[in-house]
Structures are given as structure tokens and as C-alpha cells.
Amino acid sequence: MLKHIVMWRLKDMAQGKSKAENMESMKEKLMALEGKIPQIRYIEVGLNVNPTDAAYDVVLISHFDNEDDLAIYAKHPEHVKVGDFIGKVREERVVVDYIE
Fold this sequence. Notes:
By secondary structure, this protein is α+β, with helices and mostly antiparallel strands. 35% of the residues lie in helices and 36% in strands. It has a single domain, classed as Alpha-Beta Plaits (2-Layer Sandwich). It has helices spanning 19-31, 67-75, 77-89, and strands spanning 2-10, 13-14, 17-18, 42-47, 58-64, 90-99. Strand 2 and strand 3 (17-18) form a beta hairpin. Helix 1 packs antiparallel against helix 3. The radius of gyration is 13 Å and the shape is globular.
């Protein structure tokens, strides 16, 4: 199993909405990918409650059978749409993929 974990820091304001509003939108859009992209085996989205500067705002934890399935997910049109939105509201992104 391949675990794909992504964390983002969001802009204070973007797309006419606050960081908190965009955090909720991100969660909704990412969770909506479940069932639309068959390669997703598990998906979870968390919104940060830690107020420190070291914390990121949103985390995505997802599981795939292998790297090929992750690549299919990355290019899927529904994922690309969500990625376009995230690209407009994020300041920073970090990712780690590992095999368990």
C-alpha cells in the first residue's frame, strides 16, 4: 500500500474568501473525490486546530494500491479541478509518499 500525505498552508484571503472558508472548501472538494476516482482506497482530510506558526492548515491522507494508481489519481480530471482550486488558495505545499 502507498500512503500519500499532503499538507498545505493557505493564504489569509483568496478567491474572495477567508482562510477558514477556503479550508472548509478544500476539505469538501477533496472528500468529494472519494467514489469519483476508483484508485483511492482511503481518503481523510483534516483541518488544523493548532495555532502555532509551525502548523499547516490542511492535511490530506490517502491510500493507493501502488505508485501507478497514485499517478492515475494525479492526472484524473476531477483531481485536476480540485488542484486548480487549491493552487489559487495555497501559499505552501509539502508532500510525502511512502510504501507501508
